[in-house]
Amino acid sequence: MTVPVTDFAASPLAQLAGLEFAKGHGTGNDFVLVADPDGLRDIGAEQAAALCDRHLGIGADGLIRAVRSEHLPEGRELLAEDAAAVWFMDYRNADGSVSEMCGNGVRVFVEFLLDQGLAELAQGEVLPVGTRAGIKRVERREGGFAVDMGPWGFIHPAQAEEDAGDSLVTADGLDVARPALSVTMGNPHTVVALAADSELARLRLFESPSVEPLPPHGTNVEFVVPAEPLVREGIGNISMRVHERGVGETQSCGTGACAAAVAIRHWAGRGAPNRWDVRVPGGTVGVAFVTGPEGAEHVELSGPAVIVARGTLG
Q: Which DSSP state fits 10?
């Protein structure tokens, strides 16, 4: 039997030969990062998926392209809102699909800008970043960054208030469908509470969980276990695994951690804390509920960001 040999010269990666890139992660949520300040190198869906392929490419949960906002229509709109939002985070999922934004990714994006000498940011200073979910303000802190993720919302507010849930989720490893609550963080999330760590460990998230009804643009699904006790020294504690649309299970999801804290706080009721530690397979991120500049409640996400490698595509 003749085994076919993959022809690199004919692959989507060959079109990107000579591309300089970096690899970074935020609590295990990993990304290929490319600097394209002048917007001269548009990387399409097929090429992005090839770069993110863990066997035939570099491997990542997503591709982040750093482009000056003036070179993208979405970026120019945001510059009209804040002229300091010079950089735009052009983000694609591992399957090449365009995504609104990524909470872990935006921290790694800013670390990448600093690493490449494209921006400067002292501890305590804030850098506004353009994304398809609006401008995200990233503050440099000791050990990482904190991001104002903007206001949160329930996708089905009336059901969330009346029934504390709006959908049913079926997943490999769960004995029956579980009730869930849908939260938007600029991208859609469906949060399921589980009773014990053993349930969380039994999940097999190789396939997308089934969500009924499914939001129009799909959804990320978070499975969450509240700690016992839930609150320690004024901080809520939960553990989480996530299946991201267009990616699969990831080691971490920043917007998912925010959505999980929103849902668990809602279910916990009056007196639930405004600060949460969310433990994911790749580490721990912090979530805090704060008052935004317009008076609405915002969610702040904090955690580390690391550049682990730099290279050139052959």
A: G
Give pLDDT, residue 9: 63
Residue 52 appears among annotated catalytic residues? no
Q: Residues 6 or more apart from 175 whose CB is under 8 A from it?
A: none
Q: Is the pLDDT of residue 228 over 90?
A: yes
Which has the closest alpha carbon to 65: 39, 84, 94, 85?
Answer: 39
Average pLDDT of span 286-306? 95
Check if 102 is active-site.
yes
DSSP 70: G
Phi-psi region of 2 (alpha: psi -120 to 50; beta: other; left: phi over 0): beta
> Using one digit for the tens of pLDDT, what is the confidence trace for 235-260?
999 999 999 998 999 999 999 999 99
pTM of the model: 0.90
DSSP 8-state secondary structure symbol assigned to residue 209: P
pLDDT digits (tens, 9 = 90+) for 87-134: 999 999 999 999 888 999 999 999 999 999 999 999 999 999 999 999
Query: Which residue among 32, 64, 102, 299 is the active-site one?
Result: 102
CA atoms lying within 13 Å on the CB side of residue 57? 29
Query: How many Å apart are CA 43 and CA 20, to the nearest integer?
Result: 13
Could you tell me the two tokens for 115? 């690493």
Q: Give the CA angle between residues 238, 277, 252 to the nearest 5°.
A: 80
Check 32, 48, 194, 253 and give the catalytic one.
253
**Residue 249, strand partner residues:** 243
